[in-house]
Amino acid sequence: MRTGLLAVLIIVGVCFATYVGADLYRHWDTVRHSSAPTIGVALSGMLIFFLSTLGVSDFAVSTAIYTPTKWVSVKRLPGTLNVQGVVPFVLMAVGFIGVVKVDPVTLLALVAAQVVGAVLSPRFVVKLPERTIKRWIACGLIIAGLFILAGRLHLIAGNGTALRLSGLSLIVGCGLQVLYGALNNIGIGSYALTTATIYALGLNPLVAFPIMMSGSALSVAAGSSLFVYYGDYDRKVASIASLFGVVGVLVGLMVFAHFNVAIVSWLVIGVLFYTSFNLFYSLSRTRH
């Protein structure tokens, strides 16, 4: 089963890279005349996906770089962020599946659930009140972060050693992953939510990485193909950032191999609080 998932990830990565390569070939003049600095974008790509491999949102870091430098227009920012991430995500997923031990059934079930949510949800998710969803998720992430922090400080008994889910826990996990895949369509990332779920269900926190990266690789690829089809992305920035992002991922995987659960736990706490803060901040900016 694990081999099958690896095969699917590799096929998706190769097919998507070929698809983007063909688009770049057809629009080479546009790429050649782009004003974005090649070296700057390459170095940024390595940094973005090095941090992403360690669990820091590539969307957040990319936006923080591309917006003030004006390398990418606001209109093409969503497409650029999605397209540049597919190949690095595939590499992350393959690397984590090989490094992190997790029950194959649990891995496949949770990954498939996230993809199903991302594919089937758009017609339903767009009807939900986005502000309410963000508010509840932000509060939930704070609560999850506080529980994990209490565990690290030995204020409560900590969990997080299991490598598999079964029965009701697996059903709950799959249901939540469907929801997280759906929420991606309104701009809410799945990493913090997935890690919070992993903790709540008693799994080893490292298990969040292959689950989240595999789910992201497959679900983002589907949406990104539409951005490529309509040409609604910055071809030069996305292609260079993706190419050099592979280097960042490889370095990140080597660093990650020396991580321990305690380090990951503190990293997760930071991600949960950071994501929650961003959600509350976006709510304050859009208050009517």
TrEMBL record:
Keywords: Membrane, Transmembrane, Transmembrane helix. The chain crosses the membrane at residues 41-67, 79-99, 105-124, 136-155, 209-230, 237-257, 263-283. This is Membrane transporter protein. It comes from Furfurilactobacillus rossiae DSM 15814.
